[in-house]
Design goal:
Number of strands: 0
Largest sheet: none
Structural class: mainly alpha
Shape: elongated
Helix content: 55-70%
Radius of gyration: 16 Å
Distance between the termini: 21 Å
Length: 65
């Protein structure tokens, strides 16, 4: 077991996956207009970007719970 001041390799991996997913979610959200200036594309909930955002949300929940 690593000492408290030593980094846990698993934690580092989880953080980078977390950061990657958050960045991807923001990019996709901007692309379909639901972040920033709220101007959603028509039927945005039917887009592949929105479906990917839902997948990301599930994975983010698994990472932070």
């Amino acid at each position: 077991m690593p000492a408290k001041n030593e980094a846990d390799p698993k934690e580092g991996k989880r953080e980078s996956e977390l950061e990657k997913l958050i960045k991807e979610k923001i990019e996709l959200s901007r692309k379909i207009g639901i972040v920033g200036e709220y101007q959603p594309v028509e039927n945005y909930k039917e887009t592949k970007e929105y479906k990917r955002i839902e997948e990301i949300d599930l994975r983010l929940w698994e990472l932070v719970k």
